[in-house]
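Sequence in, structure out. Go.
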Amino acid sequence: MVATAAASAFLSIPSPSSEFCGKNGGNTPSSVDVRGASIKSKSTSSGRIQVKINAQAPSKVNGTRVGFLDATKVDDERIASPSPRTFINQLPDWSMCLAAITTIFLAAEKQWTMLDWKPKRADMLVDPFGFGRIMDDGSIFCQNFSIRSYEIGADRTASIETLMNHLQETALNHVKSAGLLANGFGSTPEMCKRNLIWVVSKMQVLVDSYPQWGDVVQIETWVAAAGKNGMRRDWLMRDCNTGDALLRATSVWVMMNKETRKLSKIPDEVRDEISPYFVDTPPIVAEDDRKLPKLDASNADHSRTGLKPRWNDLDLNQHVNNVKYVGWILESTPPSILEKHELAGLTLEYRRECTRSSTVESHTSVMNNGEESCLPECQHLLHLEGGGEIVKGRSVWRSKFVDIAIATPRE
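Output:
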């Protein structure tokens, strides 16, 4: 009986069925609230009776003290009384906070590592990322390059085109670092206003030693005045590991109108832009003022015709890049020289530009005929098919000292 009363205190009694109501003449209440043993009835305007039952359990059962809880009151307290607000339960999920903090610290550590990067190799202590930097109050620009596997030739050394491309890249980065690079291929803001571009008129290159695959080289470049309407640019390439000079080069540049394709004088506004960066030093390579002999298809020893520029051979000035001419010169150089010798010196005189629609012929004449007592020397000519001269040049060669079969990249 006690168990029944206690159970009824926690369980709600459903409404009686319609059948039960019918038996009692409809006077039975539709809901019953079981609260205790005493029954109180109260008439309502609808004629229904509300029954309230109050049940009380004995304080002891079989000598054991028992208690009674009001189920409705307990449920109401659980709903109406939330857990107390403390500092701990107001904080966000600790796991998410820890993950966010860890991510921030890892990102900061990565950035700091890049800024405070210390190379392990001594040959990379200067300009380790190859971005380049200005030295000597802005007069000299220095940049590092690593010789890649796709920049070497059959003898595992860098090709002459690779080295000259690095020279050109250093020159452009010098202009950019000085804040003079505008919307053009090395053109300054004042040059762009007047549709002027730089074109090379003469270049001399002396190669003391070719870097090998994996070597890191350092290139220094600077500019100086060359006559009234020209600018001279010099380069010095060193081995970062030994400091030995690998290459020296000097060049003369003039201005050309981009629209008319004719040479132009240097305007005073442009001269004011570039003259603060001029250095007063002699050329790093003594000028080779020997006159290049006349060469054409009739007196050339070797010729290559039908050379056409590819789309990738054009630069931002919409003509063939000057480095491409070196590759065309080598097209007509005899294989006997290319296999047993390496290029030691090159002098080029640029006469006119070459465009996408041009067809080029390459001619080479071998001097000294490869005699044992002297180094081979060649005369070169590039000219348009049925047209004028593009480049005249002279090359000097020396014997190779590297055995191709056993050559390996330097550590």
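Check: Residues 1-49, 71-75, 116-126, 402-411 have pLDDT under 50 and may be disordered. The two ends are 97 Å apart (CA to CA).
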